[in-house]
Design a protein that fits this description.
The chain is an alpha/beta fold. Helices cover about 35% and strands about 20% of the residues. The chain has one domain: Rossmann fold (3-Layer(aba) Sandwich). Strands 2-1-4-3-5-6-7 form a 7-stranded mixed β-sheet, with helices on both faces. Helix 3 packs parallel to helix 4. The longest helix is centred in the middle third of the chain and has 12 residues.
Length: about 150
């Protein structure tokens, strides 16, 4: 499933091939995982969505605005957030800090940047990241974590 949070539309959901029923997901050892992609750069947003939709365990939520990214995070409680510092209102670096405050250590935060590393992030990717790099990082950060509420 892909959920879009954008500046012009409040919330639009579209189901794709990766949409799963709760019954289907129970048989997995790890997943499904909610991933929020918060990017002001359309190419980063598109590349991330294409890559993450390759794995049916990932439910992708997107936002192209910092304020709406925070709103989405509060509603969805993502397991991982991919943040692009080019986000508008507020900028990506403040969104990153606010996401960490709102979600705590539970969520894994990956920052997309033009160079330097963000020390408070769980992972860093360059702006020109390859799909394989994002998927490898998502698997490393998420697949080793226990499912929240497992056994319930």
């Amino acid at each position: 499933m892909l959920t879009l949070f954008g500046r012009r539309s409040r919330r639009v959901e579209t189901a794709g091939a990766a949409a799963l029923s709760p019954q289907a997901s129970r048989s997995w050892v790890n997943g499904p995982w909610n991933i929020l992609v918060a990017a002001g750069d359309v190419s980063v947003l598109a590349r991330a969505v294409r890559a993450l939709r390759e794995d049916p365990r990932y439910v992708v939520h997107t936002s192209n605005d910092g304020r709406l990214a925070l709103e989405c995070a509060r509603q969805v409680r993502p397991d991982m957030v991919l943040v692009d510092p080019s986000l508008p209102t507020p900028d990506g670096s403040r969104v990153h800090e606010s996401l960490r405050d709102a979600l705590g250590a539970r969520a894994r935060i990956v920052v997309v940047s033009n160079g330097g590393r963000e020390p408070m992030a769980d992972g860093n990717l360059g702006v020109g990241f390859r799909a394989e790099d994002l998927l490898k990082m998502a698997r490393a950060l998420l697949d080793s974590r226990p499912i929240m509420g497992a056994g319930a």
